[in-house]
Amino acid sequence: MIEIRIHGRGGQGVVTAAELIAMAAFYEGFEAQAFPNFGVERRGAPIEAYARISDKPIKLRSQIYEPDIIVVQDDSLLSVVDVFKGIKKDTKVIINSDKKLEDIFKTGCPVPTKNIATISATKIALEILGKPIINTVMLGFFAKFSGLIKAESINKALKDKFKGEILKKNIRAVEYAYEI
Q1: Which domains does the chain have, with CATH numbers?
Q2: What is the C-alpha end-to-end distance of the chain, expressed in Å?
């Protein structure tokens, strides 16, 4: 089983990202689940969402404490939330940032740098979507970096959730990030 924890802020599409990962995995024949972890937080407050992917039935229903993959949708969370809690030596990390890794981790990095990738998802989202909603950009990059699901499966999941011009823009965002 692969466990994924997504960190972001309310309004960035964190919960939708987890749902789309699970839907895409399901389309590829996997068992999957997605669920959020937040209370009364509002737009801009730190939140988490989770996804699990497995080739067997998933009976576990707890939060994810030792993720295989961490997605950080807002690099400002690195100084506010312990996004690396429960990290393992082979955990993969994707961070939305236009900074270099050495600038992000000036005091040392808790993860081997070969397991970390950054993407300027906000910049890409503004160019393609016209808004700083970065979840589909992050998902396209997630698909490539993790190798777990295909961009086509994410796009299929998007078609279940969106229609019209917003669907077209989000598919373009996924494909652009996948090709980086």
Answers
A1: 2-179 (3.40.920.10)
A2: 27
Collect all residues with Cβ–Cβ distance below 8 Å to 81 and sequence separation of at least 6: 7, 46
pLDDT tens by residue, 61-101? 889 999 999 999 999 898 888 898 999 989 999 999 998 87
The whole-number pLDDT of residue 11 equals 84
pLDDT band at residue 105 using 50, 70 and 90 as cut-offs: confident
Average pLDDT over residues 15-30: 96
Q: What is the 3-state secondary structure (H, E, C) of the chain?
A: CEEEEEEEECCCCHHHHHHHHHHHHHHCCCEEEEEEECCCCCCCCEEEEEEEEECCCCCCCCCCCCCCEEEECCHHHHHCCCCCCCCCCCCEEEEECCCCHHHHCCCCCCCCHHHEEEECHHHHHHHHCCCCCCHHHHHHHHHHHHCCCCHHHHHHHHHHHCCHHHHHHHHHHHHHHHHC
Q: How many residues does the chain have?
A: 180
CB 9 within 8 A of CB 44: yes
Q: Can you give the pTM of this predicted structure?
A: 0.91
